Amino acid sequence: MSQQIDHLLNEDRRFAPRPEFAENAVAGPGIYDAAKADRLGFWAEQSRELLHWHKPFTNVLDWTSPPFAKWFDDGQLNVAYNCLDRHVEAGNGDRVAIHFEGEPGDSRSITYAELTDEVKRVANVLQSFGVGQGDRVAIYLPMIPEAIASLLAVARLGAAHSVVFGGFSADSLRARIDDAGAKVVITADGGYRKGKPSALKPAVDQALSDRGEGEQATVEKVLVVKRTEQDVEWTEGRDVWWNDVVPDASADHEAEAFDAENPLFILYTSGTTGKPKGILHTSGGYLTQAAFTHRNVFDLHPESDVYWCTADIGWITGHSYVAYGPLANGATQVLYEGTPDFPNPGRWWDVIEKYGVTIFYTAPTAVRSFMKQGREIPQQRDLSSLRLLGSVGEPINPEAWMWFRDVIGGSVSPVVDTWWQTETGAIMISALPGVTETKPGSAQVAMPGISIDVVDEKGEAVGNDAGGLLVVTEPWPSMLRGIWGDPDRFVETYWKMFQDKGYYFAGDGARLDEDGDIWLLGRVDDVMNVSGHRLSTAEIESSLVAHEATAEAAVVGANDETTGQAVVAFVILKESFLKEHSAEGLANTLRTWVGEQIGPIARPRDVYIVGELPKTRSGKIMRRLLRDVAEGREVGDTQTLADTAVMSVISAQVR
Ligand code: WTA
Fold it and tell me: Second label for 370, Cα 20 to 30 Å away, from 43, 223, 242, 645?
């Protein structure tokens, strides 16, 4: 990390907001100046405007013992009341909160009034299990409305939830339940994936069984939603069917006010190495920034928009932009249970057409897999309702960005590339669609009220047209409040690096272009050093994807006797190209292409044409495993991969 990241790739396409869009946009140009003039005052105003405070706050930020922040800490609110009851009280009870689309094709639309009642019933059931402020509830559910109702019911009681993604194994579930000391688990018999019921309850049973000596299970009750009608094993006295108790529970439940800093949830980050970190978020600051960013970045007009975020509730994006942000803003949204390609590769586009989705938020990995299948599939559907597109999770290569805008967005929908993390809780960097001239591939500018910089390893700003490390220089409302049970690791991981400056270190490389716009370059651990030049994986991957034959690419640095490290690329070709060209010919073409596009220094030593790339369950490429292949080592720990078989296929293809 001793040098700056060299900047090589050029991108000069620009898209100004269309006047029709800008005219009606939620966020106007004045917003940046307002935030700059009085940052804390700006956040206080947003919070008062967007949320209902049972007891108004007078303090905004307490940063007297960094890095432990408190926001709005003398105020009190109820997060669930903010997401539900107040919309009903304001006369919007008949507005649809959730259009649910099950994978088998079942669907239901749930209004704010109905969802409010459901959450009150679930809250009463949980209360009867003894859940209250200070407790933790683990949630292990498919993408069904009951998942959202569960989160909100836990929040309503002032307890904290810990959602575990349904794709995680019994062992991962066990580790997370134990670390959080959960009192109750909410799960389902199963969910639907690729046309088949897949079981969830057995993993819970396994996670709660076989305690070693002295090991105490904290879980007292397991609440089980019936979704697939699969047979399940039953532990009498512990297990309770949701469908037996929730419908009969009372729909009267008073939302009590809790302190702004009351814990709202723990979410474990599945880092590529080491024990998962339980990222802790609290109530008032988190909800303020989730609601603010959701409204302004997605230009939400709650009366008319139909919003769809494809993220699973098990990830932070599902927390902030499926559950809390949209509901706090009274949005109507689509919730889809299954995979993008079942029963046909155009299922997502069918969903957009069916519900008239206007705002669509997804991940680059999804966009690239649609690119691979070809534009014919989305073009067979009517996607004209879309007016805004968003991307999150990885750098989106300029070509994927352009494809998204043109093919899905009909060449008119702005694309906002949003950078943030589980730790930041909400969007930190993004264009504002009615204000910012967008640039394909760049996440662009810090949100109003957020202070971001790119620095060298001493914490000095690198300035425009240079690369370095991304930092957040001032505390922000939805920042993580710690790592559950491990304050030292919290300090060590995020704050030690720039301790004297008080900067938060995000772990990502970034560069500022001549205009000061931010380009994310991937995790710092993935940066390569070729003949003394620091190269980012993201830029070379973007160059590869810019070639018409490429659908997706991953680049790693492999040890090399002459250059220190050499660039090694793993490339997935578009299906149409694979039919007509030899893989070997294309590999050479791509090497030359990168050399011409970026410069000879970036030309890959090897280009391997592969069928798949190793990805985590949330779709991030695991370059560490590809590095093992590129250096001819045995492939390391593949536990966090979505598909553990993929590495043997890749190794075979490379050999
Ligand atoms: C990466 C997801 C480039 C980044 C919300 C970050 C991105 C990590 C972007 C956090 C983006 C997320 N451009 N990279 N727009 N968004 N990342 O915790 O490396 O699952 O540090 O949160 O994803 O991933 P997490």
Answer: 645
